[in-house]
Amino acid sequence: MDRRDDGVTDPEMEGIPTDYDQLEVSEWGLDWGDVSQIRDKLKLTPTERLRTAQDFMNTIIRIRAQNGYRAKV
Amino acid sequence: MATELRFDEVLRVFIRNEVDFIVVGGIAAIFQGSPLATKDMDVVYLSSEKNNFRLAKALGELEAYYFDPAGRQIEPDASRLAALKVHFLKTRCGRVNVLRTVGKDLAFHDLVGKTRVLEVEELRMRVLDLETIIETKEHADRPKDRYQLLSLRQLLAEILRLEAE
Predict the structure, then answer these.
(1) Residue B56 falls within a domain, yes or no?
(2) A27, A49, A56 member nearest B157 (Cβ)
């Protein structure tokens, strides 16, 4: 919005959300970040979708292992 | 050492062994555009003598054994695949849940008409359609399903919007 947290008016910021409650919410309650993630995935092929999901989870698993995390199951 | 997830390899082994199966759950949703991460793959298998034997052979190649809090390594076989509905397995490619039914006790024959054939890593397979994944999550109604439903319903809305354009 055009008013900064310190109360100073900043007309250049008119219309720009600067807090979560100002973000537009989709019909299913998701915000802009969640919806754009879905739209990005829809541009990929099923193979690319599997590879990106698998790479993402394997990166998390590797970082956790490097930091001493051991899954209980 | 943590197991590297290789769901592509699981699918390859199933198809090489001519297993009749349907990819369901989180991985099926990922194939159709879901951004939600998952650490396990769920499949529904046709429970017949021949298919149970093929599936047991494929699971052997994947070095599968039952998740057991006591830490034993008990392997699935054709007899257990015929007798039990749900098999939570650890494999050399990550966790694979092999199921005889999902949702409202829906078996392979109930689901096969609600699948799409998708090509993934040059493999063609049956994948449960998004509408039915949503129905199974609604039926399960666990807290994590309720959370995932928001994203899956939004995904379906985005797909329908793209198709209408």
Answers:
(1) yes
(2) A27
Q: Is residue B158 part of a domain?
A: no
ipTM, two decimals, is 0.88
The string of pLDDT tens digits covering residues B50-101 is 999 999 999 999 999 999 999 999 999 999 999 999 999 999 999 999 999 9
**Domain coordinates of chain A in residue numbers?**
11-66
CB contact under 8 A, A49 and B33: yes
Query: Rounded to a whole number, what is the distance in Å from the CA of B67 to chain A's nearest CA?
Result: 7
A59 inside 8 A of chain B by CB: no
B120 assigned to some structural domain: yes
- A58 — contact with chain B (CB < 8 Å)? yes
Domain that holds residue B89: 7-129
Contact A28 B159 (CB under 8 A): no
Query: Do residue B39 and residue A57 have CB atoms under 8 angstroms apart?
Result: yes
Number of domains present in the structure of chain B: 1
b/e string for B25-50 if b means 16 or more Cβ within 10 A?
A: bbbbbbbbbbbbebebbbbbbbbeee
Q: Could you tell me the pTM of the whole model?
A: 0.90
Secondary structure (DSSP) of B105-144: TEEHHHHGGGEEEEEETTEEEEEE-HHHHHHHHHHH--HH
- Does residue B135 form part of some domain? no
**Shortest distance, CA B54 to any CA of chain A (angstroms):** 25
